[in-house]
Amino acid sequence: MELTVSGMSCRRCVREVTARLRDVTGVERVVADPVHSTVHLVGSMTHADVLAAFEGTTYRPVVRRA
Length: 66
Fold this sequence. Notes:
Elements: E1 2-6, H1 11-22, E2 27-33, E3 38-43, H2 47-52, E4 60-65
Antiparallel strand pairs: 1-3, 1-4, 2-3
């Protein structure tokens, strides 16, 4: 799954986003690219669980590829 995460442009943001995503059930690997504001996820996670990880934050993820 690939996400675009607007607002993820600094190291602190990358750490926060990746920490949130690592806690999602089924996520095996998280690779963040702050230059392009993208995150690549590997695992058996659901879209709903991934998007729920951002509730209460200023980040607005958009699923690019499943």
